[in-house]
């Protein structure tokens, strides 16, 4: 039997067109938006998740063929995903604005960059193209991440190359505490570059900020 849970959430038939699905989502999202109806927060997340799947051709095709379990397997999860799991996901704050299923994510590639974008209710329902400029640290190409013009660095004398310093603090009679902190001389690198030999692009920091424009 075909899984129609997500279609039922939006109140449309399994044969509904893209425009019908979009129209149903906008109507329900407007009625259940937390700004307008604070008590319908969970319902809004449920609606958002259903639309997230059904508005994406690939996800929709997978769901139509395999149901929610197929969506999960497409996310490389090994656990079954039933109706109770779906509701549990919604209650935990999942869906379009909640970051997806726990356990559906692939291997972590690093910290996500979160950018807050203010939009009006009209933009939320009708859609809006926004331009974002984000910056991140990348390896300096001039010195290839060495930090120096010559490519030579020296062991930090402040921490003896460990990258950290240990401070001994007396906390009582015959009792001491060892506190470990990052070395301020080398920034925890364990090595330093002489001031005269520092790379002109990154100033010895080995990385530079790179700006990238996105459209969302």
TrEMBL record:
Alphabetized Pfam families for the sequence: DnaJ, DnaJ_CXXCXGXG
One Gene Ontology MF term: unfolded protein binding
Alphabetical list of InterPro entries matching this protein: DnaJ_domain, DnaJ_domain_CS, DNJA1/2-like, HSP_DnaJ_Cys-rich_dom, HSP_DnaJ_Cys-rich_dom_sf, J_dom_sf
GO biological process: protein folding
Keywords (A to Z) from UniProt: Chaperone, Lipoprotein, Metal-binding, Methylation, Prenylation, Repeat, Zinc, Zinc-finger
Sequence ranges assigned to domain J in this UniProt record: 5-67
Designated name of the protein: J domain-containing protein
Species annotation: Cuerna arida
């Amino acid at each position: 039997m075909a899984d129609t849970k997500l279609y039922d959430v939006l109140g449309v038939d399994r044969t509904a067109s893209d425009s019908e699905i979009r129209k149903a989502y906008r109507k329900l999202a407007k009625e259940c938006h937390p700004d307008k109806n604070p008590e319908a927060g969970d319902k809004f997340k449920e609606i958002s998740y259903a639309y997230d799947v059904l508005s994406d051709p690939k996800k929709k095709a997978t769901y139509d063929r395999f149901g929610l379990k197929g969506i999960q397997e497409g996310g490389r999860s090994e656990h079954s995903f039933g109706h109770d799991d779906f509701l549990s996901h919604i209650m935990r704050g999942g869906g379009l604005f909640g970051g997806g299923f726990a356990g559906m994510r692939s291997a972590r590639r690093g910290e996500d960059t979160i950018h807050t974008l203010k939009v009006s209710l009209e933009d939320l329902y009708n859609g809006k193209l926004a331009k974002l400029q984000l910056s991140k640290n990348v390896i300096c190409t001039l010195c290839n991440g060495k930090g120096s013009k010559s490519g030579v660095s020296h062991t930090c004398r402040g921490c003896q190359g460990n990258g950290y310093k240990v401070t001994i603090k007396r906390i009582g009679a015959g009792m001491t505490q060892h506190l470990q902190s990052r070395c301020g001389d080398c920034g925890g690198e364990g090595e330093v570059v002489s001031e005269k030999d520092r790379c002109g692009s990154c100033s010895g920091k080995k990385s530079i900020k790179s700006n990238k424009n996105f459209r969302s």
